[in-house]
């Protein structure tokens, strides 16, 4: 199975520390939702928390729909 070039650990750290700014979404190539997250401060924090959980359980995907590499 193909894996993304983007790192699972980097995505977790970016989401944990900068999730309110959507930096983890920019990292995986999701520019549009990254801008939306930036403008709403991570959906007022809720979206950032949901993204963190999705990343931790391994279901977060990059722009091409590939799972992040371990």
UniProtKB/TrEMBL annotation:
Instruction: Report the membrane topology from the UniProt record.
Output: Multi-pass membrane protein
Q: What range(s) does the TM2 domain occupy?
A: 5-53
Localization per Swiss-Prot or TrEMBL? Membrane
**GO CC annotation terms, alphabetical:** membrane
Q: InterPro entries under this entry?
A: TM2, TM2D1-3-like
Q: What is this protein called?
A: TM2 domain-containing protein
Q: Which organism is it from?
A: Cohnella candidum
Spans traversing the lipid bilayer = 35-57
Keyword Transmembrane helix among record annotations: yes
Q: What does the UniProt keyword field contain? A: Membrane, Transmembrane, Transmembrane helix
């Amino acid at each position: 199975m193909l894996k993304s070039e983007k790192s699972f650990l980097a995505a977790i750290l970016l989401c944990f520390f900068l999730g309110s700014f959507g930096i983890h979404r920019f990292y995986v190539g999701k520019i549009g939702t990254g801008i939306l997250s930036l403008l709403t401060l991570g959906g007022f924090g809720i979206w950032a928390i949901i993204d963190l959980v999705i990343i931790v359980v391994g279901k977060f995907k990059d722009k091409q729909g590939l799972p992040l590499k371990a």
